[in-house]
Write a structure and sequence with these properties.
Helix content: 10-25%
Order of helices and strands: EEEEEHEHEHEE
Largest sheet: 5 strands, mixed
Radius of gyration: 17 Å
Mean pLDDT: 82
Strand content: 5-15%
Strand order of the largest sheet: 4-6-7-9-8
Length: 242
């Protein structure tokens, strides 16, 4: 998900957010800037709503997006917002697929391979690119900047450069990383250390593999990482379902 964060440094594990550019289909948007706060610095457009009644456009040119599993089919998906098993309690996607900007997808596939070489089964993805109309639906249900990034400012999920993920073992079973996904408690933070040694080791292994490929952690959510290379616009487009 997308909550706010207090620090701007990569060492503090923040999620870059918005400044600058304008993107098609948005009234107020931005491109990602490494080091900015997760919810952004301004609330000028706080009354703006992203339309959710008009069907969103399809995803753009293949050069703009990569479906993650096409790079490595051993990456596992459990896209929670395509189910009712999420903090909203209802499906927000018509089907569960994982798209990212090509550079982010390639970097994530490399991190997955590195984790497999260390004996893990690899990555388990809960969320990837998230169209802004879905961000609006989240905000409509939970209008709290500590939990959901306002859609007029956008999230790195809306840019296709953020992922929510975990680890699986060699048999494909999800591993314990201290809390369930999207449990917003003190135990979810990277800075919370009163956890079993194996949980702390898994968190460190996951973070190390992702940071080696250019992803930045977000301190309050062990599952959330953003790709820090480049600047990417917000997007409204959605994917087709099989």
């Amino acid at each position: 998900m997308n909550a706010s964060t207090a620090s701007a440094s990569t060492s503090a594990s923040t999620d870059p957010a918005t400044t600058g550019a304008v993107t098609t289909g948005a009234s107020t948007t931005g491109a990602s800037t490494p080091g900015a706060s997760k919810t952004g610095a301004s609330t000028t457009s706080a009354t703006t709503s992203i339309a959710t009644t008009t069907p969103p456009p399809p995803l753009g040119e293949p050069s703009e997006w990569t479906e993650l599993v096409t790079l490595d089919p051993t990456i596992r998906l459990d896209i929670r917002y395509a189910t009712a098993d999420n903090f909203v309690g209802e499906p927000l996607y018509a089907c569960g697929r994982c798209f990212l900007r090509p550079a982010a997808a390639a970097a994530l596939a490399r991190a997955h391979a590195a984790l497999r070489s260390r004996g893990y089964g690899g990555l388990l993805l809960f969320d990837c690119y998230r169209p802004r109309p879905v961000q609006q639906k989240m905000w409509d249900r939970v209008p709290d900047e500590d939990a959901v990034a306002p859609p007029w400012r956008g999230s790195n999920h809306n840019r296709g450069i953020a992922v929510d993920l975990s680890l699986v073992d060699a048999d494909g079973a999800e591993l314990d990383l201290g809390t369930p996904y999207d449990q917003f408690s003190a135990r979810s933070a990277h800075s919370f250390k009163r956890l079993p040694a194996e949980v702390l080791r898994r968190r460190a292994d996951l973070r190390g593999a992702l940071e080696a490929e250019g992803f930045a952690a977000y301190n309050l959510e062990w599952w959330h990482y953003s790709f820090t290379a480049g600047r990417w616009p917000l997007a409204d487009a959605t994917w087709e379902c099989p």
